[in-house]
Amino acid sequence: MICVKGDNKSVVKNIREDIQRLRNPEKAKILSGFFKTGKGQYGEGDVFLGIPVPEQRKIAKKYTDLSFTDIKKLLLSKIHEYRLIALLILLGRYRRADETGKQNIFNLYLKNTNHINNWDLVDLSAPNIIGDYLLTRDRSILYRLAQSENLWERRIAIISSFAFIRADQFDDTFRIAELLLHDRHDLIHKAVGWMLREIGKRDQQKEETFLGKYAAVMPRTMLRYAVERFDSKKRLLYLDLKKKQKS
């Protein structure tokens, strides 16, 4: 851990230099394809340096006391690794923070959702900041996010509910899943299916009650993710139900 004092410009310069030293153009090209950064794709314009996540975690740990102002500078970057490291630092700060500190991080996160704009960024951070903060609080913000035109805000809404699932609280996940049932984007289908599967790992009967109402009308990808851990006979039963409905 470093102590972030003195000239803020020099601190930001240092962290950027640490990041840039690890860049790998060949890996960056692979990641750019994997995260769909081409024109018209969901990650259009995202820039990768090709740095492995374990190395990014090391940098985040080194700069764990970075100021909120400097964290936001990283979060506003077009470079993916800068944004991921900013979120890793925020996660570390959130875990150590008092209630006021947690609220400040929660608010900072919600004000910058436009920059938490790829699925790995959302999945890393949303349950552990937004979901955790809302465990004992009003959750209406998630329903607003679920109806956003912004793909990533919709994903934040459903993935944040993972924190509730871990606490055996399923109702909000089911309600948000209903709102996203006919979403147009595959990344939302996968996210909803994933969260339903997580509920099923804890209470399969409750998941099946939900599927009994919606399996025939939900997107096939969503259903496939949701039933992934079912035994083969039951999994095929649900997938066949979807196939018959389509025909």
Q: What's this entry about, in short?
A:
The protein has helices spanning about 10-20, 25-35, 55-60, 70-75, 80-95, 100-110, 120-135, 140-145, 150-160, 160-165, 170-180, 185-200, 205-215, 220-225, 230-245.
Plain-language structure description:
The protein is globular. It has 247 residues and is mainly alpha-helical. The protein has 15 helices and no strands. It folds into two domains: 1-96, Leucine-rich Repeat Variant (Alpha Horseshoe); 119-247, Leucine-rich Repeat Variant, CATH 1.25.10. It has helices spanning 8-20, 25-34, 53-62, 68-75, 80-96, 99-111, 119-134, 140-146, 151-160, 162-166, 171-179, 186-202, 204-214, 220-226, 232-246.
Layout of strands and helices, then pairs:
Elements: H1 8-20, H2 25-34, H3 53-62, H4 68-75, H5 80-96, H6 99-111, H7 119-134, H8 140-146, H9 151-160, H10 162-166, H11 171-179, H12 186-202, H13 204-214, H14 220-226, H15 232-246
Helix pairs in contact: 3-5, 4-5, 5-7, 7-9, 8-9, 9-12, 12-13, 12-14
| Count of distinct structural domains | 2
Main sheet attributes: strand count, strand direction, barrel closure = none
Write down the CATH class of the largest domain.
Mainly Alpha
- Taking the alpha carbons of the first and last residues, their distance comes to 59 Å
The total count of strands amounts to: 0
Give the assembly state of these chains: single chain
Mean pLDDT metric = 93
Number of helices: 15
H-E string? HHHHHHHHHHHHHHH
CATH architecture tag of the largest domain? Alpha Horseshoe
Give the proportion of residues in helices: 55-70%
Low-confidence stretches: 1-6
**SS class:** mainly alpha
Instruction: Say what the CATH topology of the largest domain is.
Output: Leucine-rich Repeat Variant
- Rounded to an integer in angstroms, the radius of gyration calculated over CA atoms is 20 Å
Share in β-strands: under 5%
